[in-house]
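#help-structures

NK: newbie question. if I give both the sequence and a SMILES, will the prediction place the ligand too? trying with flavin mononucleotide
OV: yes, paste both and it writes out the complex. here, I ran yours:
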Amino acid sequence: MTSQLFRPFSLRSVTLPNRIVISPMCQYSAVDGNATDWHTIHLGQLAFSGAGMLIVEATGVELAGRISPGCLALGSDENEAALARVLASVRRYSSMPLAIQLGHAGRKASSQVPWEGGRPLRPESGGWQTVAPSPIPHQEGDPVPRMLDTAGIARITAAFVDATRRAARLGFDAIELHMAHGYLLHQFLSPIANRRDDAYGGMLENRMHFPLEIFAAVRAVWPAEKPLGVRISATDWVPGGWDIEQSVVFAQALKQLGCDWIDASSGGISPQQQLTIGPGYQVPFAERLRHDTGLPSMAVGLITEPEQAENIIASGAADMVALGRSLLWNPHWPWQAAAKLGAWIAAPQQYRRSVPQGVSQVFEQR
Ligand SMILES: Cc1cc2nc3c(=O)[nH]c(=O)nc-3n(C[C@H](O)[C@H](O)[C@H](O)COP(=O)(O)O)c2cc1C
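OV: that's the protein plus ligand as structure tokens.
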């Protein structure tokens, strides 16, 4: 039987050779928002994995939108040139579809890199003023973000548009907008972080206003043949917060604006979140969103086994699976999944003699 995980999937003009997506993962290895040799090595290694698409880490549309001082940005010519150098190397040896995740960290910006603690940076350590829908810190005792006014909202929309133009010039095949994990656009969606009483806060329609405005503005300048997806947190895991019902309404609105996929993650808005994690714990969100809206969905979170990934696709729960940590642990996970599921996969000519004895030939002869 042919593997469903290894069936190609088309998003506008882009064809993913299989349904395995490399989930965006911050590397905290940029300098002033500029990609470095770390990114060439890291993304280059993942670009040999044979996955269907690689999504580059959360990238701030302005410097102040970076989660940490080590995060990528795409708000200046210098940021663009640094990423161009990385992509030129990766592209020379891999034809894998490449996407970039664009976002703004809002009140969760200006944080230490995780291995230094991940706590908010104080000004004397290089911290900067954060912004948010409302002047409420993520956690008690954290610095208070500045509430965005209309001019601030317009500036950030313009920054998303500018970063999108840069991504187009860089030749990215797709963009994923980061509206999850408690960052700025999720902060607008969730009643936990959004206490505004203007057109951007209050009832659901108002809380969706800014994220939808950003989506429409990005879609308008992103080439029509290129796909644009969105990652959301399908639930805050906090009673009275954002939940799957609101996510369905939001995904329907995104679909009408031309969204190409919905990537269903969860959490990140509040330290009060209560959840039990286990294998594929977020898959039901991808399934519900796909079923209720007809949008292609991407499932993510503790998808670690080839048979598990195969079942998610074959059962119709999702159209794509995104893997994060499993691919850092084992960048050749897709090769081994192909061997297990009896599928073909692309690999560089230089590595094709690696197939161990007893494992069937998996590498496509191109
Ligand atoms: C090192 C690391 C960095 C991450 N950075 C991002 C990011 O930039 N954007 C994002 O949406 N999620 C980020 N995540 C979350 C992953 O994309 C993924 O959703 C999560 O790890 C669950 O999938 P997994 O169980 O396959 O790792 C990160 C996770 C890790 C481990």
